[in-house]
């Protein structure tokens, strides 16, 4: 089991190295754009927040994996629940991003949907505050829970900490939150996919429509949403595996979360025109600089 743990620790370290520049690039570009234009789109804000949460989770996981033997059981439990909170925040922001794109792209002639389209931006801060505070207090209850033996399995040689969700009602509620957030991300994504397919059928015979800016924006959005859908389904599955399983599946679940973050970051960049153009400009400048030095 020591070899297995060391192998996955190395793989997680590699994923962190890959994840770091991509997320820093996303955050830096959006910050520079904000200072330049004094405004930031809601989609850019959500993508930046997801990138920040991904980075924090990656660093926290690396810290726990390499220094777990120096941390007491109580502090390890707190750090583990903080990591769980960061994953939950990532899924929440992904769900809100999926809903935001759905409201922008898909038009449904229904009173409630139209009202939601008009009021989503105003409701957004309250939705964020409500969900984040709810998740925070659930994790706080788990931290303060006196039944430490339920959370900490000191007899396990597989991992220094083993969550037993069936021993804590708050963990079960947290998992229910994960299910709700994943559903909120999946349903709008599927609606967007169906809407895009119908739209492509309507413009199938129009050669000009396929290259229109509106169509390109839809395609960029669908790339981002599809990556969110796949990443969050894998993340949701990985969280359940990490809570209820042990051994190989326990380590595999943590590795899958990191891989999902890498793919979502890649599609964030490729699916957002501003990020993609900035990256192409940087790569072009690097290639020109390299050619001049040859």
TrEMBL record:
Pfam families: TAS2R (PF05296). InterPro entries: TAS2R. It comes from the Eukaryota. One of its GO terms (cellular component) is membrane. GO terms for molecular function: bitter taste receptor activity; G protein-coupled receptor activity. The chain crosses the membrane at residues 12-33, 45-68, 80-103, 123-144, 169-197, 218-244, 250-269. Its main location: membrane. The keyword Transmembrane helix applies. It is a multi-pass membrane protein. Belongs to the G-protein coupled receptor T2R family. PANTHER family: TASTE RECEPTOR TYPE 2 (PTHR11394:SF155). This is Taste receptor type 2. It comes from Eleutherodactylus coqui. The lineage of its organism: Eukaryota, Metazoa, Chordata, Craniata, Vertebrata.
């Amino acid at each position: 089991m020591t070899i297995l743990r060391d192998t996955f620790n190395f793989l997680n370290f590699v994923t962190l190295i890959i994840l770091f520049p991509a997320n820093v690039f996303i955050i830096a570009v959006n910050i520079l754009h904000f200072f330049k234009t004094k405004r930031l789109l809601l989609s850019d804000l959500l993508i930046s927040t997801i990138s920040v949460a991904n980075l924090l989770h990656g660093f926290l996981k690396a810290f726990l994996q390499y220094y777990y033997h120096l941390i007491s059981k109580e502090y390890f439990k707190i750090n583990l629940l903080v990591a769980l909170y960061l994953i939950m925040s990532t899924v929440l922001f992904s769900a809100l991003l999926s809903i935001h794109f759905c409201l922008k792209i898909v038009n449904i002639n229904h009173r409630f949907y139209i009202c939601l389209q008009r009021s989503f931006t105003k409701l957004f801060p309250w939705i964020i505050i409500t969900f984040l505070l709810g998740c925070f207090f659930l994790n706080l209850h788990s931290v303060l829970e006196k039944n430490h033996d339920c959370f900490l399995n000191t007899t396990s040689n597989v991992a220094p900490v083993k969550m037993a969700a069936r021993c804590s009602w708050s963990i079960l509620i947290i998992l229910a939150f994960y299910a709700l957030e994943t559903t909120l991300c999946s349903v709008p994504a599927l609606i967007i996919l169906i809407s895009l397919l119908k739209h492509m059928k309507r413009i199938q015979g129009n050669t000009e429509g396929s290259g229109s800016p509106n169509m390109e924006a839809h395609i960029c959005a669908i790339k981002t949403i599809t990556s969110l859908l796949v990443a969050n389904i894998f993340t949701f599955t990985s969280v359940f595996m990490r809570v209820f399983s042990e051994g190989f599946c326990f380590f595999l679940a943590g590795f899958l979360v990191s891989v999902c973050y890498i793919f979502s970051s890649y599609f964030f960049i490729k699916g957002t025109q501003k990020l993609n153009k900035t990256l192409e400009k940087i790569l072009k400048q690097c290639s020109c600089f390299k050619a001049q030095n040859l």
